[in-house]
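Tokens in:
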């Protein structure tokens, strides 16, 4: 059964009228705001910006150096090279399934339309001559692409729909040349396409956060109201580039609607047709507090209440002593001002140092002593609706679970807290987090097909799949990869998204979010079919049968 937590408001990603109204969310601090008539203008702009790859980008230079020489290395008379991408399954792996996201951006940004020109061929020729100190660049081959296809890439990419949840160890997309003359193109694009590891990994980790949050929210409140705002993206400054921020930020927005990473919002607008994918609130940083001086911390806090009398506001409160700030300033000197605020203008207190779990427990106890608490329908305590906490320091999958468990043990509902994640969401990960790989599995030589594979004796886990691949859901309900070209086309979950320079299938963020929604079994991982002993037994059986 699918969970329908629609706090994000999918209407924001659909065709909107000029006067749409923001959905109201009970117990949600980060509420959507009315963005007015500019939305449709943004949407129109978006489609114009993404019709073809950037003209100043030279695709010929967007590969690992050694790939420039590979056209010389294939056997004579090869006419087809077929490769695939997967997140390998490892016994010690932390995650059993992945969220597929980000391919559409890469295709639109770098591969769509005419990407080869004579000027780019000459630029690449000169560059590689200097780089290799010998002539290895296939100038004539690339010129043939230009002449035959007007610089468009004669390759076909089939992929699962974006947002789909796929068990590790299955094919996610395939690449093949469509013209036998350009068999070497298939793996030339590997370098760029393997960078899919990043948005897939962020979207996967973000959804794992969502599972944890949903489990505790459901257990302690009886509902999932406000879930889509429970994890705020604080990661913009912690990533390595603007593009990383955009890709990672957008990947988080597959699962949540709460972010401060503007680059991710812009990517969702321009490449996934979502006018406004996430929301934020006014919030203090340490500079806006300590600039008042230590003796005037109370005045700094009060100024924020004055500047933002309506709507929620977040105030970092650990500049000097978080516990004294909560007890003597918020809970005493400014107590009446805080109590004047409504559920729609919640004060969100932000601790930002110390042990996250211990600090939150102490803070919430102090706030209860000062402002009281009530009991929800599940028998867990709630702070008054005008008061909440957000923890953004030291947050990862482990600490979120620990905090929520300790709160529950102390009788507190998960409704009381929000979280912000930075590096653990967008930066503390790499290609081996999900063991992403791109491998050749089929070739044609002299008109005959041959299934190919690798099987290193030193590491069996790096063995690759064989033949043409398809992805299906079998009669037991399991998703599996069918190898050796024996899959039935009508069962294949892979969709042709790119062919000969054209994008054939696009997805909106709204559609992607629907694909990535949680299911009831996600709230109790021990019941999830991919984690069960039977699932592991079936998985191994499929591997031995060559079907995965």
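Residues out:
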């Amino acid at each position: 059964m699918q969970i329908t937590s629609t706090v994000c408001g999918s209407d924001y990603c659909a065709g909107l009228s000029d006067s749409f109204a923001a959905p109201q969310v009970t117990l949600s601090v980060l509420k959507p705001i009315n963005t007015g008539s500019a939305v449709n203008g943004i949407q129109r702009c978006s489609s114009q910006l993404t019709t073809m790859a950037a003209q100043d980008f030279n695709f010929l230079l967007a590969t690992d150096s050694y790939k420039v020489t590979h056209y010389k290395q294939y056997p004579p008379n090869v006419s087809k090279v077929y490769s695939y991408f997967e997140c390998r399954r490892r016994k010690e792996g932390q995650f059993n399934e992945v969220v597929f996201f980000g391919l559409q951006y890469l295709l639109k940004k770098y591969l769509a339309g005419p990407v080869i020109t004579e000027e780019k061929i000459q630029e690449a020729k000169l560059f590689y001559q200097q780089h290799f100190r010998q002539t290895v660049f296939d100038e004539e081959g690339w010129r043939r692409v230009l002449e035959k296809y007007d610089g468009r890439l004669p390759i076909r990419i089939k992929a699962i729909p974006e947002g789909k949840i796929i068990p590790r160890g299955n094919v996610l997309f395939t690449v093949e040349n469509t013209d036998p003359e350009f068999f070497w193109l298939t793996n030339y694009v590997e370098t760029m396409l393997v960078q899919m590891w990043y948005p897939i990994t962020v979207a996967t980790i973000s959804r794992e956060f969502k599972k944890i949050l949903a489990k505790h929210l459901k257990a302690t409140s009886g509902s999932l109201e406000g879930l889509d705002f429970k994890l705020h993206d604080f990661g913009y400054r912690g990533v390595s580039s603007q593009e990383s921020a955009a890709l990672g930020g957008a990947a988080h927005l597959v699962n949540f609607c709460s972010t401060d990473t503007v680059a991710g919002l812009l990517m969702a607008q321009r490449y996934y047709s979502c006018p406004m994918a996430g929301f934020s609130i006014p919030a203090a940083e340490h500079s806006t507090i300590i600039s008042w001086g230590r003796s005037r911390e109370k005045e700094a806090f009060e100024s924020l209440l004055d500047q933002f009398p309506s709507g929620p506001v977040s105030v970092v409160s650990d500049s000097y002593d978080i516990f004294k700030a909560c007890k003597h300033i918020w809970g005493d000197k400014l107590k009446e001002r805080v109590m004047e605020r409504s559920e729609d203008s919640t004060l969100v207190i932000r601790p930002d140092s110390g042990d996250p779990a211990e600090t939150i427990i102490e803070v919430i106890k102090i706030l209860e002593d000062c402002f009281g608490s009530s009991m929800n329908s599940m028998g867990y305590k709630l702070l008054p609706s005008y008061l909440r906490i957000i923890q953004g320091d030291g947050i990862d999958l482990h600490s979120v679970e620990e905090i929520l468990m300790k709160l529950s043990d102390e009788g507190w509902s998960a409704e009381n807290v929000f979280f912000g994640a930075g590096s653990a969401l967008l930066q503390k990960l790499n290609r081996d987090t999900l063991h992403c790989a791109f491998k050749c599995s089929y070739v044609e030589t002299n008109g005959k097909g041959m299934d190919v594979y690798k099987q290193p004796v030193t590491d069996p886990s790096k063995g690759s799949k064989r033949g043409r691949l398809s992805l299906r859901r079998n009669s037991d309900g399991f998703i599996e990869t069918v190898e050796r070209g024996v899959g039935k086309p009508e069962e294949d979950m892979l969709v042709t998204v790119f062919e000969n320079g054209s994008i054939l299938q696009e997805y909106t963020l709204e559609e992607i979010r629907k694909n990535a929604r949680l299911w009831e079994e996600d709230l109790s991982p021990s019941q999830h079919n991919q984690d069960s002993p039977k699932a592991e037994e079936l998985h191994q059986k499929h591997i031995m049968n060559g079907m995965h």
